[in-house]
Design a protein that fits this description.
By secondary structure, the chain is an alpha+beta fold. It is built from six helices and seven strands. The longest helix has 13 residues.
Length: 162
């Protein structure tokens, strides 16, 4: 991911970059309870540490150190805009739809939304890191308070807000 960020920083692209994955800020990522790392195997909707069993029939995953990604992005000239749990992010994004008069989601849609947003499911395990690469010329200055809160959550209080 660090190499990909470097490539994006050199591209002509300007705009917001959203990174979503399992992961934590560094202070949570490096707690003693994770001294064995975060590599896990998912097989038949269950997780375990047997990462070399049933290769090709199970999914392997590892958590992202979002602080490291954010530090690299800042070093490459990008701005940290937000660091938030997926549940809060998606609820904010969907708020206009959920409040629309007459909106009545079907039960399947509602179950899927709740799986993505509920803290006991994916809402707390996944995080969103929002970065901005250039493009300030065409926009109003973004919310410095929101950016400062993201840097605090990431443990980067001394990083420039821009």
């Amino acid at each position: 991911m660090l190499g990909w960020l470097a490539e994006v920083s050199q591209s002509a692209f300007t705009g917001e970059i959203l990174l979503a994955d399992y992961g934590h800020a560094a202070r949570e990522y490096y707690i003693p309870e994770r001294n064995g790392g975060t590599l896990r195997r998912y097989c038949q909707h269950r997780t375990d540490d047997r990462v070399l069993e049933n290769l090709g029939e199970a999914d392997l995953t590892a958590h992202v150190n979002f602080t490291r990604l954010a530090e690299q992005a800042v070093a490459l000239g990008m701005t940290v805009m937000e660091f938030i749990e997926q549940g809060r992010f998606l609820t904010h994004v969907a708020a206009h739809l959920l409040r629309r008069p007459g909106f009545s989601p079907d039960p399947a849609w509602l179950r899927q939304f709740q799986t993505l947003t509920h803290p006991g499911h994916l809402g707390h395990a996944f995080h969103i890191l929002a970065l901005q690469k250039g493009g300030w010329e065409s926009k109003a200055e973004p919310d410095a308070g929101r950016r400062a809160a993201a840097l605090r959550r990431l443990g980067m209080e001394s990083a420039p807000i821009h």
